[in-house]
Structure formats: C-alpha cells, structure tokens
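Predict fold of Phage holin family protein; 111 aa.
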Amino acid sequence: MKLVLNLLVNGFAVFVADYFLPGVKVDSFLIAILVSVGLGVVNTFIKPIVLLMTLPFNIVTLGLFTFVINGLMVILVSAFISGFAVENFGWAMLFSIVLWAVNFVFNSLTK
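Predicted 3D structure, encoded as tokens:
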C-alpha cells in the first residue's frame, strides 16, 4: 500500500513540476506515473554507480555535484519516455529540485 501511495505522490509531484516549470512538458497523469516509475528505476540502478564514479567531484563540491547528477538522470528518463520532455539541462535540474520539494512536503505530512 505504501508503494502505491508513494507512486501516486511522485506522479503528483511530476505533475506539479510540469505546472510550475515551462521547460518541462508532461502529456497526462499516466505519463507522470510512468516518469515516476522511470525515475525510481534509474535512481535505484544507475544513479548509485554514477555517484560512485563521480565521488571525487562530489567531495570537492561538498555534495553540490549531486544536483548535476539528478539533472542527468531526469534527462535520461526523458529520453526513454515519450510524452515527457525537458527542454535543457537547467530545466532538468529545476525539475529535480521541485520533485524533491513536493516529495519532502508530502512525506513530512504523512509521518
């Protein structure tokens, strides 16, 4: 049950990011759910490897390079899911920040 709720919250967060960011386009709520699933898969399997490979950059930048990696993960997902488009890298980074903020608010309300 918690997985389904988390999936719906992430889909809503993707939809909110689409509303507030003009550089992000999501066609429907179903596409937003698919984007949240895609981001979950990418963040589970690919992101840890990329974080490990870029560990020196993360240490030097005190973790700020993680925003760059998050933007790259969003661009990767947008390449595979039709109906979800991000104009450029800056919008992808802003998208990941909005996604984090909405998830933070919902997770703090559910606890």
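The mean pLDDT is 94.
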